[in-house]
Amino acid sequence: MSCIEQMKYTILLERISFKEAREYIEKNSDEVYYVSPGYKIFKDYYIIGVPPIAVGSKGNALVFPYTKPCHGSFVLSIENEDSIKEINRLRESDKEKGPVSLKKDKSLESSKASSTSYLDMWKK
Amino acid sequence: MTGAKVLLMMGCPEVPIQTSIALYLSHKLTNLGFDVTVAGTTAATKLLKVSDSDGYYAKKLVDLDKTLEDIIEKRNDFGICFAFMHNDSGMTYAATVSAISQAKMYSIVFGRHAEELAQTIEFDCEKIVTQDVHNPVRLKNKLDKVMEEMAK
Questions:
Q1: ipTM surpasses cut 0.95
Q2: Would you list the DSSP string of A39-81?
């Protein structure tokens, strides 16, 4: 069990596909950053995901995807001292290119596959 | 290729054929000379442990998240990975391994929505797809052909 499950978190979306989690974070965050699979947050959680993985900030809260093998993907939000540190770390590592918002920049969209039919079924 | 480290990555064990295929694949690949590790969720590994209580078919059984952590931290890696998937989470875990590992990827896609799920795979891999849920024979036959190629 990662430390995430022992922290105070808010579930923003639950039991969705990873693609839906990414789209939610892109649309509902103040700032969006993209990290690689395995990016470590909160000391011991390595983010599982299909690249590019969107991680957002909403005020001082870190908004990120969390995938469980039997329960699908979730969008979680954590706001505490550590989330501020994580947001600052993302800002620092992204300084060269600056925060990216997919609301404006569609070039990073990775939805190459036609997954609509599967996702619709999966939600049922 | 024989002798390479192989990771069998099990997802949620909700669809019955995963357990039998994992045991079958582990045993066959071990007999071919591969160094096989089977990784899974707590429930998936317990199913294997009970079915194979002496560890005859699956000699190395490990925790899935710990295995990913070891690959990310460069404490371990594999030459080949067979990723089982019947839902979006399974595909997401496989995409993660594809990104963090040097392994050649084989996606074993099964269950009622296998065809649709296989279409969502964006990473480079060989896909082995059947829509079966309970009867593992068709998937076994497809994997036999894959193993024949691997043994060459």
A1: no
A2: -EETTTEEPP-SSSEEEEEETTEEEEEEEETTTEEEEEEE-SH
Q: Which domains does chain B have, with CATH numbers?
A: 5-151 (3.40.50.10160)
C-beta separation of B23 from B8 below 8 A: no
- Cβ atoms of A86 and A16 closer than 8 Å: no
**How far is it, in rounded angstroms, from Cα B59 to Cα B94?**
22
Burial B61-81 (b: 16+ CB within 10 A, else e): bbebbebbbebbeeebbbbbb
CA distances from B101 to A78, A100, B10, B35, B136 (A): 29, 27, 16, 16, 28
What whole-number distance in Å separates Cα of residue B65 and Cα of residue B54? 24
User: Residue B109 and residue B116: Cα distance in Å, rounded?
Assistant: 10
Rg of chain A on CA atoms, in Å? 14
Closest CA of chain B from A34, distance in Å:
14
Residues of A in contact with B92 (CB under 8 A): 18, 48-50, 67, 73
> What is the model's pLDDT at position B81?
98
Helix (H, G, I), strand (E, B) or coil at A94: coil
CA–CA distances in Å: residue A99 to residues A5, A57, A58, A83, A107: 28, 10, 13, 17, 14
Token reading at B56: 């005859």
CA B43, chain centre distance (Å): 15
For A61-86, what is each residue's pLDDT tens digit? 999 999 999 999 999 999 999 999 99
What is the rounded distance in angstroms from the CA atom of residue B141 to the CA atom of residue A63? 44
Residue among B69, B93, B113 minimizing CB distance to A69 = B93
